[in-house]
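Throughout this review, each integer encodes one residue's backbone shape. One record appears below.

===
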Amino acid sequence: MRALEGLRGISVSLNKCGIEEPYKEAVTIVSEVMGLEKVSLYRDNPLLSSEQEAEIREAVERRWRGEPLQYIIGFVDFCGLKIKVGPGVLIPRPESELIVEKAIKTVDGLRSRVPCEGSEDIRRPTGDRGLRILDLCTGSGCLALALARGIPESYVFGTDISEEALDYAVMNAEINGIINAVFVKGDLYEPLDCLRFDLVVSNPPYIRKGEIADLAPEIREWEPVSALDGGEDGIFFYRSILDGARDHLAEEGSLILEMGHDEAGDVTHIAHEAGFRTVSLVKDYAGIERVLHLKMA
């Protein structure tokens, strides 16, 4: 069977089980199985081997059962990085790239600090060794690693309570050849309590507990609930993050947060009560106020 013939059959099959973009997913599955760029499928229409046909059938069957395509493929692109994902870790979303864009712009004015050396003591004062960044609820490590790559003079820490998620983060650092990031198990700031940071970022769980049951099945039944559940009102973690931020930000430090679709007002109010001022509020591609940049007042 040729690739284009396979694409048509897979697309029809995925459409029957309610996949929203069946042809797009079919192209992704076939190109990944064959190890080819998508353009090559159309240009060359290569012949599928029997082993490749079997692998594609298995991928389609997993998709029928509702497993996320990203878990089936095993990777997702995030800010140009290849991020490994699977059961036990949240799948990075495109809107989270806005945090990286905002963070890189934020530190542009701080780049005069001395770049860090891999052999230096990470507990030395920040001004002696470059920018120090913390990613809370790091999950797959996508934010931490994108910042480590985009701000090479930085030393980036990621914390998470999930051992499974941290395993993915460490693997992703190795896959992408990033050496200026380290991942530590613990609750928010707790494992790095003695350090201060020039920049703290976070994409914490922010789905209201009562709304998790209404999420798409491939989210609620496959992705870890602990990475989704933001408590009864969805903003449980923001209170803890903002409460601890003043003790962990360096002078002139910034805090950048991703928020749920209708949470900007509540999170901003909590931030102002905690002594922060709003620097900017960034909308995502759907016009939702998604990323909040704060500094101490």
